[in-house]
Design goal:
By secondary structure, the chain is mainly alpha-helical. It contains five helices and two strands, in the order H-H-E-E-H-H-H. It has a two-stranded antiparallel sheet. The radius of gyration is 21 Å and the shape is elongated. The N and C termini lie far apart (66 Å).
Length: 118
Amino acid sequence: MLIGELSRRAGVSERLLRYYEQMELIRSQRRANGYREYDDQTVQTVRRIRALLAAGLPTRIIRQVLPCTFDETTLRPCPGVLTSLRAQLHVLDQRAADLEAARRLLRRTIAATENAAN
């Protein structure tokens, strides 16, 4: 299928598909006229990529994890994948802690401002 059809079937833009290809997350064959052609399995691959991105994984880890996926939520054991996922979970936990600290500070600032105004 051509990139336009893949875009429609996967629900993502052609530009995003080109980016995924540049990041080596999907592959295409080139026709004689230079058009990209994708196999039917690429639709499912794009959906898995979207699910992994939604889970907070960067493309460098998705590239490692993607060959280990069965569907959007199931992984089979692959060397190094669990280590990468744990490391990413630690990054996300740290971001969550940083955001919570920022929320507390903002709440204190708002409360202090409201108290000063009264």
